[in-house]
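Propose amino acids for all 521 sites.
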């Protein structure tokens, strides 16, 4: 028998085996690989199995591998269905063999690292393997005949088998993900070790990044309850930031929100935000959870009754976090939460006014290290736009040199060309025009805007599609703002601008501007 040192085993794994596996993709026949992968290399329980497992990094890495394999299988099943419609029998068979191979690999890989998998899971594994074999046999028969009558009768049978394979596969993946979520949550629930708990929370966060379906599974298995339990224990204070980050991810789904309400999550978040002994990182991640659960894009925030009870102290803490933010990221999270709250409840705007938030936000915008992206400016101008419905807001804007800021925001452009950043720039332009339109009912604000040459810039945004990145929402907002300022200063417009952009109905000016060529500018 051979004995290997750790370093020589490492070399074998990285060099020879790695190259063999890469070559295998190009050289090996699918059928051969299918047969090979359905058989274990060794049945011995001893050293060899330990060596095999030593190459596995962690539960999280293994789950990502499993999800990658599952995605491949799912894609292949869709493609088989498409080829079947076109009667491409040879392709259908080769793809079926490949799916068979992937399914067996996935099951073997999973069983190599999982612990205490259920009897139900093993049943589904066997059902899926048997159905895949049956599927391969059927498609092979179809490649051996050209009799259209036989092929037609086989087609419905294959379709039925394909549906069953997809169904078993979906149920197995659901069981696997549920089982792994349960394992991680059990570790979080039972462990007193900071290291083990941190590792489990990080794995759980990594799973939440795989999409809404996994977030639903985690919420259903009690993820929100377990994580809030951590946030109520002082011994785990150092884990609060990653725990809250994981909670924010889970709360993107309705199940997560319901769980949060059940465990009195909002009073807990309010306590964290108002406790000055917590780190800025903890406060920022708590702000991220607030931003998530108050998002105006969610349709299931109505049940957050406890939020209104805690709103004043949450808003106060978030304003304080904005004021003392040490980085752009912290400011972004705190201001995003505030922006969402101003949509969530109108009382928030009055609280912000009392807290002198307008001045704090306007001052922050002059610090390019803090308000350093269009995303941050989008949050600030959202708050300004929502606050501008209050009459007292105008004097605050004047005192804080806010009209100058709104004018600068009308020039917001993306430096990277990244689509998300371009969309943020459009929102900044639109909301700054909306805020100007609302505030210009006050003669003092309108006068300041006119002196800062807002009218020529609004005309340019209306007439030049590239200046507004062809955005219709920016165009409408600019037309409204322009009309409001034109009332205060009719002499500030040339006759052609007045005739085309102010005098007609809004819809007619809109249609005129959307059909304009650049040569009109």
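Proposal:
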């Amino acid at each position: 028998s051979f004995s290997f040192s750790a370093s020589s085993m490492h070399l074998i794994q990285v060099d020879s085996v790695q190259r063999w596996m890469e070559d295998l993709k190009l050289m090996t026949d699918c059928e051969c690989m299918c047969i090979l992968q359905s058989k274990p290399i060794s049945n011995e329980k001893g050293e060899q199995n330990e060596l095999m497992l030593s190459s596995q990094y962690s539960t999280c890495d293994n789950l990502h591998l499993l999800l990658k394999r599952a995605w491949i299988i799912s894609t292949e099943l869709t493609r088989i269905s498409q080829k079947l419609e076109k009667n491409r029998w040879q392709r259908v068979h080769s793809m079926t063999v490949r799916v068979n191979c992937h399914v067996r690999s996935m099951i073997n890989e999973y069983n190599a690292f999982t612990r205490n998998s259920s009897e139900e899971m093993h049943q589904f594994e066997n059902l899926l393997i048997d159905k895949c074999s049956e599927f391969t046999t059927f498609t092979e028969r179809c490649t051996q005949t050209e009799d259209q009558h036989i092929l037609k009768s086989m087609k419905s049978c294959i379709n039925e088998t394909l549906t069953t394979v997809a169904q078993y596969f979906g149920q197995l993946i659901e069981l696997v993900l549920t089982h792994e979520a349960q394992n991680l949550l059990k570790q979080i629930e039972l462990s007193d070790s900071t290291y083990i708990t941190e590792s489990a929370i990080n794995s759980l966060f990594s799973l939440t990044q795989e999409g809404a379906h996994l977030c639903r599974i985690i919420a259903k298995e009690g993820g929100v309850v377990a994580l809030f339990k951590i946030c109520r224990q002082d011994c785990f204070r150092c884990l609060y930031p990653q725990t809250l980050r994981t909670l924010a991810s889970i709360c993107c789904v309705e199940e997560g929100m319901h769980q949060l309400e059940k465990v009195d999550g909002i009073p807990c978040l309010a306590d964290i935000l108002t406790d000055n002994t917590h780190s800025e990182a903890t406060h920022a991640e708590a702000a991220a959870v607030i931003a998530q659960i108050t998002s105006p894009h969610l349709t299931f925030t109505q049940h957050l009754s406890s939020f209104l009870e805690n709103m004043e102290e949450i808003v106060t803490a978030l304003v304080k976090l904005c004021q003392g933010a040490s980085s752009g990221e912290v400011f972004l999270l705190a201001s995003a939460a505030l922006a969402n709250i101003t949509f969530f409840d109108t009382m928030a705007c009055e609280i912000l006014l009392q807290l002198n938030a307008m001045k704090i936000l306007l001052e922050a915008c002059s610090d390019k290290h803090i308000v350093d992206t269009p995303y941050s400016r989008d949050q600030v101008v959202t708050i300004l736009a929502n606050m501008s419905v209050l009459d007292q807001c105008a004097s605050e804007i004047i005192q804080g040199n806010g009209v100058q800021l709104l004018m600068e925001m009308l020039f917001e452009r993306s430096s990277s060309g990244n689509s998300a950043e371009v969309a943020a720039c459009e929102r900044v332009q639109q909301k700054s025009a909306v805020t100007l339109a609302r505030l210009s009912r006050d003669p003092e604000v309108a006068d300041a805007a006119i002196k800062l040459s807002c009218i020529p810039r609004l005309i340019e945004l209306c007439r030049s599609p590239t200046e507004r990145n062809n955005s219709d929402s920016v165009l409408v907002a600019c037309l409204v703002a322009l009309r409001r300022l034109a009332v205060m200063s009719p002499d500030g417009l040339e006759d052609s601008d007045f005739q085309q952009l102010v005098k007609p109905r809004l819809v007619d000016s809109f249609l005129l501007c959307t059909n304009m060529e650049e040569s009109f500018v």
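The two ends are 84 Å apart (CA to CA). Residues 185 and 223 are 7 Å apart (CA to CA).
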